[in-house]
């Protein structure tokens, strides 16, 4: 049974959406406008609440990097090649030694979004698909980054990968929004999917120091041996993981028959929802798997939140990071 913890729960013999609707974009223009308005009127959200990014405007965030800026950091001995404009002449008058002033370098943090659009995210039993919930959440982050004058980059986790370089340009971001919201029809059985761990390694080489990285996924393929890359990412940047789940992945329905299938769609067992004992065992396994994922993520020093498909943006049930509750 432990090997089944990573399986995808699907309705037996049915699709939750019809073929016609699966070719439509995840969000229409009206929904996108509504999310934009939500972002403009709700400042108290996870993006602004991340512990080390609390100021809103350029120049208000103190960088950990030193260079030429306005916020004094320290004096250090003058060295050949230093700019004479930064010599601390008052300190020279007192000590007779040359020192130069060092300032905190002003940096505008970049926001990077990783949005999972792979097969297991194209599933939902209530109001929307998991991928739709992830995109809705990502759009509000993007719109709030616009308000805070932050450049936003993104990678859409699908085959092939879609990369968007960090930019504050409205036209570039409109292209990103269109790609995030495009249709997500069910994938063919046996469809090859890129691993998140691979993309995390690629993402690290594209990030400026001190970036804000938000991962939106169900983390269905997360394994313990991959956590080193997550930990390394969290050491260099502010990282938040939003685990997007369908309600049925935490609590099984009261009746009916369901297939427990591999990610490639191969049926492995049939679950009888009327069998209370079997349902209780499977529910416990699902819950243990989600707890394990949460522990791994927070153990890597990443802020963790959970979003259900039935919830609205920022109806997030958990906000924990390594060493904090």
Structural overview:
This protein is an alpha/beta fold and 325 residues long. The chain folds into 2 domains: 2-56 and 108-308, Rossmann fold (3-Layer(aba) Sandwich), CATH 3.40.50; 66-104, no CATH class. The protein has 9 helices and 12 strands. It has a 6-stranded mixed sheet, with helices on both faces. It has a 3-stranded antiparallel sheet with strand order 1-10-11, with helices on one face. β10 and β11 (267-272) form a beta hairpin. α5 packs antiparallel against α6. The protein starts with 7 loop residues before the first strand and ends in a 17-residue tail after the last strand. Mean pLDDT is 79; it is low at 1-21, 51-69 and 263-267.
The overall strand count is 12
Q: What is the number of domains?
A: 2
What average pLDDT do the residues reach?
79
- Proportion of residues in helical segments: 25-40%
Going across the biggest sheet, name each strand in turn.
Answer: 7-6-5-8-9-12
Structure classification: alpha/beta
Strand content: 15-25%
CATH class category of the largest domain: Alpha Beta
CATH topology of the largest domain: Rossmann fold
Ends apart, CA distance between termini: 31 Å
Q: Which descriptor suits the 3D outline?
A: elongated
CATH architect. name of the largest domain: 3-Layer(aba) Sandwich
- Roughly how many Å is the radius of gyration? 23 Å
Q: Main beta sheet, described?
A: 6 strands, mixed
Low-confidence stretches: 1-21, 51-69, 263-267
Give the SSE order as H and E letters: EHHHEEHEEHEEHHEHEEEHE
């Amino acid at each position: 049974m432990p090997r089944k913890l990573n399986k995808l729960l699907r309705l037996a013999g049915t699709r939750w959406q019809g073929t016609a609707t699966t070719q439509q974009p995840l969000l229409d223009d009206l929904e996108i406008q509504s999310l934009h308005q939500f972002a403009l009127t709700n400042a108290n959200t996870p993006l602004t609440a991340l512990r080390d990014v609390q100021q809103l405007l350029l120049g208000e965030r103190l960088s950990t990097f030193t260079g030429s800026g306005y916020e004094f950091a320290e004096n250090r001995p003058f060295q050949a090649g230093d700019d004479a404009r930064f010599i601390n002449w008052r300190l020279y008058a007192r000590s007779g030694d040359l020192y130069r002033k060092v300032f905190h370098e002003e940096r505008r943090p970049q926001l990077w979004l990783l949005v999972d659009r792979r097969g297991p995210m194209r599933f939902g039993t209530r109001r929307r698909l998991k991928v739709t919930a992830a995109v809705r959440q990502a759009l509000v982050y993007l719109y709030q980054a616009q308000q805070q004058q932050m450049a936003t980059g993104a990678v859409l986790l699908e085959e092939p990968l879609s990369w968007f370089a960090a930019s504050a340009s409205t036209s570039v971001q409109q292209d990103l929004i269109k790609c995030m919201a495009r249709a997500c029809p069910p994938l063919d059985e046996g469809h090859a999917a890129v691993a998140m761990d691979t993309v995390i390694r690629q993402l690290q080489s594209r990030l400026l120091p001190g970036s804000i990285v938000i991962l939106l996924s169900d983390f269905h393929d997360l394994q313990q041996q991959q956590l080193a890359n997550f930990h390394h990412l969290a050491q260099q940047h502010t990282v938040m993981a939003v685990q997007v789940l369908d309600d049925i992945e935490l609590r099984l329905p009261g009746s009916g028959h369901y297939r427990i299938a591999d990610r490639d769609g191969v049926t492995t067992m049939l679950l009888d929802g009327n069998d209370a004992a079997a349902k209780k065992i499977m529910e416990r396994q699902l819950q243990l798997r989600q707890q394990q994922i949460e522990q791994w993520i927070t153990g890597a020093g990443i802020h963790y939140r959970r979003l259900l498909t039935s919830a609205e943006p920022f109806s997030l049930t958990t906000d924990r990071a390594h060493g904090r509750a």
